[in-house]
Model the fold of this input.
Amino acid sequence: MARLERRLRILSLAALLGLAGWASWLDGKAWLAQHLIAHAWQTTLDQGVPQRPWPWADTWPVARLTTPTGKTLYVLESTSGEALAFGPGRLAGGIGSDQALTLAGHRDTHFAFLETLENGDSLTVQRADGARQRFQVSSQEVVDSQAHPLQIPRNDRQLILITCYPFDALTPGGPLRYVVIATLTP
Done:
């Protein structure tokens, strides 16, 4: 019986160490990805050509979003699940478009800050050509995406940020979306 208990303890310890190692690997990978994306963004600004953060990446940074608290988020050219794991993605609009710059992100990671935004808060977007645009939050609303599909306005003076809602939902992927609209300031 003592042998069995000892083996179970050793097996439990090995499993615990394995889980800790896996969690460390994921955190390390996320940390490295953010540094590679930041480097790709700087290379894009320097060379004027979109740069993938790693050779097999299916996305690249297209803008840099700065929150009211000064946090920097690199916006990626895609809203695929793989891209959204690393940062918010561009859904529509942007340079050369007459549509609002529309970004989507996960409510529990990159776009968690949307929960604390207030009307009047400032957001800054740096475009790939280096130009900076300042936007002021003008409205926030919860929309049922099944009842009211998203219509991206033809207004290149708007920034729209979208994430799932509610922020503290236990299960992801419900029909509610939290939509923040910000207007370009002169």
Notes: The helical segments are 2-47, 81-84. The longest helix spans residues 2-47. The radius of gyration is 20 Å.
